[in-house]
Amino acid sequence: MSQVPSSSPIQRGYMRRTKIRKVSEKRTRQVVEERKLIGLLLIECKGRCMKCGEYPDFKDGYGGLHLHHKKPKGMGGTAHNYTINEVELLCRKCHSHRHHIIEA
């Protein structure tokens, strides 16, 4: 077994192990509930945007459907109470439009 030279990055402490942050059980449950809801919404909308009805464009690297909260957290909505009536799956363009983001 060879020893690491004292001038190496490992010896100087540059490549120390980083601690992986533990995720709380509450957050884990929230993620599981969110994924179940996304699955239900995907079945309901058949893989299409719930606003424009188009399939998402995966060619630009930003494709896919985005989970959009109809009532934002800043207006009394909560990020953790997911129900089918409170969220919708939108394509990137419709999701940007709902958030008043102008695309180039």
Could you please describe the fold and organization of this structure?
The chain has 104 residues and is an alpha+beta fold. The chain has one domain: His-Me finger endonuclease fold, CATH 3.40.1800. It is 31% helix and 8% strand. It contains three helices and two strands, in the order H-H-E-E-H. It has a two-stranded antiparallel sheet. The longest helix has 21 residues. It starts with 8 loop residues before the first helix and ends in a 6-residue tail after the last helix. The model has no long low-confidence stretch (mean pLDDT 76).
Main sheet attributes: strand count, strand direction, barrel closure: 2 strands, antiparallel
Domain tally: 1
Low-confidence stretches: none
**Strand and helix order:** HHEEH
Mean pLDDT: 76
Shape type: globular
The number of distinct β-strands equals 2
CATH class label: Alpha Beta
Query: What structural category characterises the helix and strand content?
Result: alpha+beta
Which sequence of strands runs across the widest sheet?
1-2
Stated plainly, the CATH topology is called His-Me finger endonuclease fold
Based on the structure given, which CATH architecture is correct? 3-Layer(aba) Sandwich
